[in-house]
Write a structure and sequence with these properties.
two-stranded antiparallel sheet; alpha/beta; globular; 7 helices; 274 residues; 9 strands; binds zinc ion; Aminopeptidase
Length: 274
C-alpha cells in the first residue's frame, strides 16, 4: 500500500518534467545522471513507500504515522528535485521508507532497522530477525549505496549535497527554532562557508549541527564523502516550511545562490592552499 498515494503523486507531477520518468515501484531513483553541474544531490529519506515484499506493503502503522517524519522526510524530495534542476546537477533519491531500512545508517548501526521511533512501535519490525534485516539490506540499502557511489564517481570532484527535513517538534520536547540546519562531521569546509552565506539573511535562524549532530559514523556522508575527501554538506529544512510544492520550489530557489557562493568559496580556498 502506498500511503497518501494521491497527494504524493499529484505533488510529483508539479515538481518538473523529469518526474514523468520516475517509476513508482523502483527502490530508488537517479534523475539527471548526465547533468554537468558540480553537485551530487542526495535524498536519503525521500518517500514513505513500503514495498510489497515487506509484510505485504504495510508496516502495521496508521496512515497518520506513515505520513509524518518517522517514516520519511516530508518535502525533501521536492526540494531535491528542484535543486537538481536549478543547479543542473544529478539527484539520487530513495523510494522506500526509512522504517523499512534506514539508508542513512551504517549496516551495523542498531538503528538501521527501527522497532520504535519517536514513541511509536513499528509492528512489522518488532520481530524482524537478522535474516530479515540482511534481506532488507541486500534489497534496498546496498543497491542504493552502490548507485550513489557510482554516480559520485562519474564526476571528478562532486560536492555531496544531502537534503533532509526535520519535524518542528518531537513528542514531549520543546519547539525547534531553526528554519534550516547545516550538519557536518569532521570535514566542515563547505558547511562553514554555507553557514556564512545563509547568515547574511537576517530573517533566518540557522542551526549549526542542529537539530542534531552531523557526526554519525557509517552514515551516507561518512561513506561517500568523508572517506574519500569529497566536499559535502547536509541541509535539514524544517518540514512545515516545505509542505507543498510551491514552498519546496521557493526554498530551492532561496538556497541556490548561498550554495553556489559557498562552493566557489571553498574551491578558492582550496586552490589558495594548494
Ligand atoms: Zn532525513
Amino acid at each position: 500500500m502506498l500511503y497518501d498515494a494521491i497527494s504524493f503523486w499529484v505533488q510529483l507531477t508539479y515538481v518538473g518534467r523529469v518526474t514523468e520518468y520516475l517509476d513508482p515501484s523502483a527502490p530508488f531513483w537517479v534523475i539527471g545522471a548526465d547533468r554537468p553541474g558540480p553537485w551530487l544531490i542526495t535524498c536519503d529519506h525521500a518517500t514513505n513507500r513500503v514495498p510489497p515484499d515487506i509484510n505485504g506493503g504495510d508496516l502495521g502503522l496508521p496512515a497518520a504515522d506513515m505520513n509524518r517524519h518517522i517514516a520519511f522526510d516530508p518535502g525533501s524530495l521536492g526540494v531535491s528535485l528542484a535543486l537538481g534542476e536549478l543547479l543542473d546537477s544529478p539527484v539520487i533519491a530513495t523510494n522506500f521508507s526509512r522504517l523499512v531500512i534506514d539508508p542513512n545508517r551504517g549496516e551495523d548501526d542498531p538503528t538501521v532497522l527501527m522497532r520504535l521511533y519517536d514513541g511509536t512501535i513499528i509492528p512489522a519490525n518488532r520481530h524482524a530477525n537478522a535474516a530479515e534485516r540482511e534481506r532488507r539490506l541486500a534489497t534496498y540499502h546496498r543497491p542504493y549505496h552502490d548507485a550513489y557511489e557510482a554516480l559520485a564517481q562519474q564526476k571528478a570532484d562532486p560536492a555531496v549535497l544531502a537534503i533532509h527535513s526535520f519535524t518542528p517538534q518531537l513528542t514531549g520536547r520543546p519547539r525547534r527554532p531553526w528554519e534550516i540546519g547545516i550538519l557536518f562531521a569532521s570535514d566542515d569546509r563547505l558547511s562553514r562557508c554555507l553557514i556564512s552565506e545563509l547568515q547574511k539573511d537576517a530573517s533566518l535562524t540557522v542551526g549549526i549541527n542542529e537539530p542534531y549532530s552531523g557526526h554519525l559514523p557509517g552514515d551516507s556522508i561518512d561513506r561517500h564523502a568523508l572517506r574519500s575527501g569529497r566536499q559535502n554538506t547536509l541541509v535539514e529544512l524544517r518540514n512545515d516550511l516545505i509542505s507543498n510544492v510551491e514552498d519546496q520550489r521557493a526554498w530551492a530557489r532561496r538556497l541556490r545562490e548561498p550554495l553556489t557562493n559557498a562552493l566557489n568559496a571553498v574551491h578558492q580556498k582550496d586552490s589558495a592552499d594548494a
